[in-house]
Design a protein that fits this description.
The complex is a heterodimer of chains A (309) and B (394).
Chain A: H1 2-28, H2 34-39, H3 46-56, H4 62-74, H5 88-123, H6 128-142, H7 145-159, H8 170-199, H9 203-210, H10 215-227, H11 229-233, H12 235-252, H13 258-267, H14 271-299, H15 301-308
Chain B: H1 7-15, H2 20-30, H3 32-49, H4 51-54, E1 79-81, E2 88-93, E3 96-100, E4 107-111, E5 117-118, E6 120-128, H5 138-143, E7 150-156, H6 175-211, H7 213-228, H8 231-241, H9 248-260, H10 264-279, H11 282-289, H12 294-330, H13 342-351, H14 354-359, H15 365-388
Antiparallel strand pairs in B: 1-2, 2-5, 3-4, 6-7
Helix pairs in contact in B: 2-15, 3-6, 3-15, 6-7, 6-9, 6-10, 6-12, 6-15, 7-10, 10-12, 11-12, 12-13, 12-15, 13-15
The chains are: A mainly alpha (309), B mainly alpha (394).
């Protein structure tokens, strides 16, 4: 187990390295002079420009800047924002909490509704329940989140007044979390349904039935447990979608957060901020997948053994 | 006796001699929702193609000044009965006049019932380039001297009356028309972006699987790394590389390109797997033994083997791209004014806040169109998947 763990952790390093490099070089493709972006059209003498360039390290050739970027990134320093002239890390850490709350809320909603709908339709395929749940799931996948958010605001915020539209605390998180998690409900419900349908044809289900176990015992003890494995492994992937969904949700609900910060940074062409946001979310995503993989191998030793061959 | 043989049986016997595609089509047709969605999409495409003719006003034609201000004018009421006699008459409308409510500072529209304006068919109005010439880019049209224009619209009313089936937007532009014009963006962007993703996936995945070795390792590691960057973040970062305020057709190309470049990874992986297994097939070995070149083997033997997957992947990519484009435009990073896009129209609804719900709910209509279109593409994709590749069913 320890060997597996060490191997996985070491394996992450090149992935982090390549993804950071990729992000760095892609953002180097920016046309135009970053100094112009910083000055935002204000007149400045050539001397001032030269100074700013030197201050940002832009006078050095690309490979030197690349090494600098990597060296600083390893120590958690991703430069200063063009807009605020502050280290990007200060603003990002200030906006981190609301986005994590939102993603966690979305995950809870997604798991709660996705799992129950998926199980419901999986154990009663082709029933009315199944049709209803699958229509709901498909709606979750097909609705633009900013539109469903507006409808939620209208019905539950204004008409019924169940949840506050803005503000802090748990009640104000319900609608944004639902907006973010709606597609996850759809994805999970569909995945779990097909997973259950597949598991129900396995030998151990027949064995369970043959030895006289009750229907619900077979369903909950044997079918569900095994059917959960494939969807749960995909949760890491879904996290990326949740964080991406935050970009839209935060805009609709006027919430602070990383998504909103990314949009304003793109609009302001604040490249260090854009770069830092992508680097951080990518790194977080890589680490999360590592954790999911390791946990998964704890639950199911077959994985660990299969991969160490 | 033969006449009384059940028809179904005959069909089944035929299917043994049917090609893979004919069988798939037969399967697809059984999927009722998919067929219905396909018809709906065909109607949407036709509406988008003939948008100029069907819409009573031009895409950017606005009514926003002085007496003709129609900012957020509600849907025009169309009357079918004569006001005096109460008998059925040719449909007509009354002109509206705007006045500002001094308490709420909003424009209030009141009908002026002194004169009725009949709804006329094939009226003259804003001039435009008729389809199918609209499909030709303006530069080429200019070079080939193809500058026919027409000003006939399917229906309309005489000014000062205005006809807004689904209300007007902030500049007094027709929401119904702009939804049709916006359909052009939403219905094409998904297809082009999917084509880019699919081509990249087929070429890179095919080469990777066929040649293997260093190329395979490098490409697959690259795909893995690309998959670690959350796609919407990557998309926005790429968007930052391009200028924001350029003309709508340039933005259209920018959006298609960056969308196409973010989702090819998973396709390349599957195609690689297919190529790996096809490579070992006897017909490929035979082709190689007969001296077939790599290019020939790739194109004649490997590519057809991936066709079923390619079609399914293509159709299932489209809905995601439509949603992403709408999201980008909604955030102000996609299609920009004066062009119209469903996401962009919803951004106006969003800016309106509570007023959108209380006084101009028609501004939410584009969302319904995104929803229905994406749903239809999802159904068609599901149907294709079931028909072409039952193994892919999730």
């Amino acid at each position: 187990m320890l060997r597996y763990l060490i191997r996985r952790v070491i394996g992450v390093i090149p992935v982090l390295f390549i993804s950071w490099s990729l992000i760095f070089f892609v953002l180097q493709l920016t046309p135009g002079d970053p100094v112009n972006l910083m000055l935002a059209g204000r007149p400045a003498s050539e001397e001032v420009r030269e100074n700013t360039r030197r201050l940002l390290g832009l006078d050095k050739p690309v490979h030197v800047r690349y090494i600098n970027f990597l060296w600083k990134a390893v120590r958690g320093d991703l430069g200063d924002s063009y807009r605020t002239r502050q280290p990007v890390i200060t603003e990002i850490s200030a906006q981190l909490r609301p986005t994590l709350e939102l993603a966690a809320g979305g995950l809870v909603i997604g798991l709660l509704f996705g799992v129950s709908l998926g199980v419901l339709s999986g154990i009663r395929p082709n029933s009315w329940w199944d049709t209803g749940a699958m229509v709901f799931a498909l709606a979750g996948i097909s609705m633009p989140s900013f539109w469903s958010a507006m409808l939620l605001i209208f019905f539950f915020g204004l008409k019924l007044g169940w949840f506050p539209i803005v503000g802090e605390g748990l009640p104000a998180l319900v609608m944004p979390a639902f907006t973010t998690g709606f597609f996850l409900v759809g994805n999970l419900a569909r995945l779990i349904r097909s997973s259950i349908l597949e598991v129900m044809t396995e030998d151990y289900i027949r064995t369970g039935r043959a030895k006289g176990l009750g229907h619900w015992k077979v369903v909950f003890k044997h079918a569900l447990r095994n059917a959960m494995i494939p969807p749960v492994t995909l949760l890491g992937v879904q996290f990326a979608l949740l964080i991406g969904g935050a970009v839209i949700t935060e805009t609709v609900f006027a919430r602070p957060g990383l998504g909103r910060l990314l949009v304003t940074s793109v609009l302001n062409k604040d490249f260090p901020m854009v770069q830092a946001l992508v680097v951080y979310t990518t790194s977080a995503y890589i680490m999360l997948n590592l954790i999911v993989d390791v946990l998964y191998s704890v639950i199911d030793p077959r994985i660990r053994d299969a991969r160490s061959v | 006796m033969a006449e009384f043989a059940p028809r179904k049986r005959v069909v089944r016997r035929d299917s043994q001699a049917m090609s893979q595609w004919a069988v798939a089509w037969q399967q697809f047709r059984k999927h009722r929702l998919a067929m219905f969605s396909l018809y709906a999409l065909v109607v949407f495409y036709l509406l988008a193609l003939f948008a100029d003719t069907i819409a009573p006003y031009g895409e950017a034609q606005s009514f926003r000044r002085g007496a003709e201000n129609r900012s957020f004018a509600p849907p025009t009421r169309i009357y079918w009965r004569d006001a005096e006699t109460g008998r059925l008459s040719w449909p007509f409308v009354y002109p509206v006049s705007a006045s500002r409510d001094l308490r709420t500072l909003r424009l209030v529209y009141t009908e002026d019932r002194t004169q009725a304006y009949p709804v006329r068919l094939f009226v003259r109005g804003h001039s435009y380039v008729p389809p199918p010439l609209t499909l030709v880019p303006p530069q080429i049209r200019k070079r080939l001297q193809l500058n026919w224009e027409t000003d006939r619209h399917l229906f309309g009313v005489e000014f000062p009356a205005t006809i807004y089936l689904w209300g007007a937007d902030q500049f007094g532009r027709d929401v119904f028309g702009r939804i049709l014009f916006g359909a052009r963006i939403s219905l094409t962007i998904g297809i082009f972006a999917s084509l880019i993703s699919l081509s990249l996936g087929l070429v890179l995945g095919g080469l990777s699987g066929y040649y293997g070795g260093v190329l395979d390792d490098a490409l697959m590691r690259f795909v893995e790394v690309l998959a670690t960057i959350p796609s919407l973040f990557l998309l926005l970062a790429l968007r930052a590389l391009f200028p924001l305020d350029v003309n709508p057709s340039t933005v259209f190309l920018i959006v298609i390109t960056i969308l196409g470049f973010i989702r090819w990874g998973p396709i390349a992986r599957v195609v690689r797997g297919l190529a790996l297994s096809l490579r070992e097939e006897e017909f490929v070995q035979a082709a190689r033994a007969l001296g077939g070149s790599d290019a020939r083997i790739l194109l004649r033997h490997l590519l057809p083997g991936t066709a079923a997957y390619a079609i399914v992947a293509f159709s299932l990519l489209i809905p995601g791209f439509i949603l992403t484009e709408a999201g980008l435009s909604f955030l102000g990073l996609g299609i920009n004014e004066p062009a119209s896009s469903w996401g962009l129209m919803l951004a106006v609804a969003q800016e309106g806040g509570i007023q959108t719900f209380t006084s101009r709910p028609w501004m939410l209509l584009p969302g319904l169109f995104i929803f229905v279109t994406v749903l239809a593409f999802n159904f068609v994709g599901d149907g294709l998947r079931d028909a072409l590749d039952p193994k892919l069913r999730t």
